[in-house]
Design a protein that fits this description.
Blueprint lengths: L5 E2 L14 E2 L8 H14 L1 H12 L5 H11 E3 L12 E3 L14 E4 L2 E4 L3 E3 L7 H11 E3 L9 H12 L10 H9 L10
Antiparallel strand pairs: 1-2, 3-8, 4-7, 5-6
Helix pairs in contact: 1-2, 1-3, 2-4, 3-4
């Protein structure tokens, strides 16, 4: 994934595609497997070495989206504190949902599978960088005890079915959004992600 945000020109009510918002770049290429594998590798390094690797990654502006998502997966709140989401703008969620429905925005972690749930962000000003969000997490959050494991196709499909079955949805998902979420668990042999 590239830089934190890219600009569109309007929400197309016919397709449901977010084009009037700022959105994660290359959202259509998001693959859960790539983040699961990366989280597994980082956790295997141990917290100290993983943080150093994330700090190096965060210096690359093109890796900002990846760093933010990995932070949402690898950190949690400290007792008595909050684990705020990244400051990327006002999130646009599918299915009539809102922030309260997705505590790990921009992702939803279902059965250990991270789905990119945000369609985009409305933004006026600058979005928080991956480096800035990593700094916030290192300063105010705790390293999570949740252990990621590589998932089989059947496990990913089960997680997707569970995501579709969540009571969070206020309105039915259109076929475009359902297909987008299905695409997140399909392999992409050409990119390795």
């Amino acid at each position: 994934m590239g830089g934190c945000v890219s600009h569109g020109t309007g929400v197309n009510s016919g397709t449901g595609k977010p084009d009037a918002v700022f959105s994660f770049s290359h959202i259509e290429r998001y693959k859960a497997d790539s983040f699961i594998r990366e989280a597994v590798k980082l956790q295997a390094l141990g917290q100290t070495r993983a943080l150093k690797k994330l700090q190096v990654m965060a210096q690359d502006r093109e890796a900002g989206d990846r760093v933010i998502i990995l932070c949402r997966l690898l950190f949690t709140n400290r007792p008595g504190s909050d684990f705020r989401g990244p400051r990327l703008g006002w999130a646009v969620f599918p299915g009539g949902t809102d922030y309260i429905d997705w505590p790990l925005e921009p992702v939803a972690l279902v059965d250990g599978v991270p789905f990119l749930i945000v369609q985009g962000y409305r933004l006026s000003g600058l979005a928080e960088s991956g480096a800035g969000y990593l700094n916030y997490c290192e300063t105010h959050c705790a390293w999570s005890d949740f252990k990621f494991t590589v998932k089989t196709g059947k496990q990913k499909q089960g997680a997707l079915d569970n995501l579709f079955g969540l009571p969070n949805w206020k309105t039915p998902l259109d076929e475009y959004k359902r297909a987008s979420l299905r695409g997140q668990i399909q392999s992409n042999p050409s990119s390795g992600r």
